[in-house]
Structure to design on (708 residues):
């Protein structure tokens, strides 16, 4: 079944999604009966297009790879209408909006506005944006539920490493009592280098920046703000909490010294930046801080830029999943998993209506 | 929505499933709208009953805990009809058959016969039995598919630690290129004790037997037959292989010495009994053997009776999940997850029919 999709935001994640859709076109059709028609793309920097018949992705890639803008799709001299995302959602006739703009963890905007508009217009939404999921999950999932729609956020915490789908399906029937994880690959890479190669913090950070793991301004990673946004999402979505970013105790890795890390190693421990949330007396208690883990903890073995999350459940005890936590194809893959889940529902609905 | 379930086999796993259903009755109803009605139970040792109105589980538990038989459910002197499982499937009007009898890895019987009967009678099947899944997966899943039914096998590999649901949902869109895992908790416990506590193999085995991890005859575990059955299932279900047990290279842990294990440890390695299957030139190559893993391998950190499995995927690279691999509630939980997935489908079907 063909599904019409519009992208709001076409940076790294958007490009990753489109590359997967193009590369795996025939495989997705044969395995799932799924065909994607990209009917619109809007990007703050690269312009917007509406193509009701479906965008030819190889043509778009050639255009972008040559340094062109999205709105030159109809030709070099074409003056495509400049649409803001809200108008594009109104006009595009998509069944799914993939909201892939930048995260603003203070307001969740403008993404939250786009998501509301889409849900009110009867469109499913999938997003990798931490802002709306961390700040407005209850409202947005309530709006989706009221309208019989999906608000898919698989890509917001560990990119394509499954979190929400794992809890919903594989762990169905379990109550999640606590989550505890390594949710920031940059800091885990830095801590790994400080321990294994005896690097100074500044050198490890510099290497992370050279490898593209850390931004020029590394504050969001090294001070724990990125992990904080993710643990807020986990608190509210998986533990039924009502946690705001300001409620989370936060400490980054900048105060950790090489001496502390080596001393822990000598004692059979390993420092990790741990995001943790647990139910406690009707509330959810969330924190981000370096913790000295015994090597027997499954999280202690997670090295380099990997992420991992341990779910403490009532029936199964502890389940840990480890995998990538970022990346173009990795996050695109999370968006695809949410889209395929919606496609499954659309197929059922289609069966109901015939 | 109420779902009618019959159990064929009511040993440890069956009891675990029933205890979960009873304990979580109200939670399953509020979270999923799911209500279980157990309409029949058949057990080779404890007799069988048909109770179309639904078995009162607390009454059944009291009976069994007092040393009674299932077929005394209607009273001490009652002579409940002795039904063989095939007749029970025919008479019970269940929507789901939970096939929870013992594994016979040579023939897959009598379980395979029960499963076929159920699928041909229009009933979904969930099982934790490795025999039918390892030997007859293609035939049974084909039969299920032809009849619009589910053949759920989540409990066959790592008890409640998700494997098949993880691939189907969370890793949707990915191709699995290889699986590699620790699929036998008993041998992992023994290797852990030999390495960490410097125990001799015989002492570690004895401890495993005392703790209930190993059977009096430990052959199936320590010679790798249990892991072999599981890697056959993974090969055929996840990698599309056509692997028979005899095709798998198998080596257990009995030839491993404490000296080898300590020498590996000194070099920064750790011995694990690894079940592995990969695509290779249109075929699937599967093996079970001790491997010396570097400590950086996520599987190297898996200690004690835990299980873990690494999926090598085309889009996400390596994803590893770790959790329990056996246990009454743990395996019951896998059966429940499969039942809840079927319940989701039945709800959709019900919506379609009204």
């Amino acid at each position: 079944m063909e599904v019409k999709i519009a992208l709001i935001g076409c940076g790294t994640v958007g490009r990753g999604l489109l590359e997967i859709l193009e590369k795996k076109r025939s495989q997705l059709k044969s395995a799932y009966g799924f065909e994607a028609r990209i009917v619109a793309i809007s990007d703050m920097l690269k312009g917007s297009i509406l193509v009701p018949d479906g965008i030819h992705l190889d043509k778009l890639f050639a255009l972008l790879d040559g340094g062109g803008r999205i709105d030159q799709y109809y030709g070099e001299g074409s003056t495509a209408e400049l649409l803001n995302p809200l108008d594009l959602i109104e006009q595009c006739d998509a069944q799914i909006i993939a909201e892939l703009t930048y995260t603003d963890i203070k307001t969740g905007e403008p993404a939250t506005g786009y998501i509301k508009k889409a849900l009110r217009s009867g469109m499913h939404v999938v997003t990798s944006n931490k802002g709306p999921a961390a700040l407005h999950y209850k409202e947005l999932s309530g709006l989706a539920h009221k309208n019989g729609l999906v608000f898919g956020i698989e890509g917001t915490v560990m990119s394509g490493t499954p979190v929400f789908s794992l809890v919903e399906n594989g762990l169905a029937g379990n109550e999640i009592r606590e989550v505890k994880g390594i949710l920031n690959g940059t800091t885990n890479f830095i801590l790994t280098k400080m321990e294994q190669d005896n690097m100074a913090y500044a050198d490890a950070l510099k290497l992370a920046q050279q490898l593209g793991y850390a931004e020029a301004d590394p504050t969001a990673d090294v001070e724990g703000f990125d992990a904080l946004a993710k643990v807020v999402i986990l608190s509210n979505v998986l533990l039924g909490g009502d946690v705001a970013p300001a409620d989370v105790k936060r400490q980054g890795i900048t105060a950790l010294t090489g001496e502390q890390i080596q001393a822990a190693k000598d004692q059979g421990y390993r420092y990790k930046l741990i995001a943790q949330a647990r139910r406690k007396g009707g509330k959810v208690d969330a924190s981000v801080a370096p913790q000295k883990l015994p090597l027997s903890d499954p999280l202690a073995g997670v090295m380099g830029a990997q992420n991992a999350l341990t779910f403490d459940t009532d029936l199964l005890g502890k389940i840990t999943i480890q995998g990538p936590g970022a990346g173009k194809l990795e996050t695109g893959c999370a968006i695809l998993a949410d889209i395929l889940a919606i496609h499954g529902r659309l197929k059922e609905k289609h069966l109901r209506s015939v």
In short: Chain B is about 40% helix and 20% strand. The first strand of chain B starts at residue 2 and ends at 8.
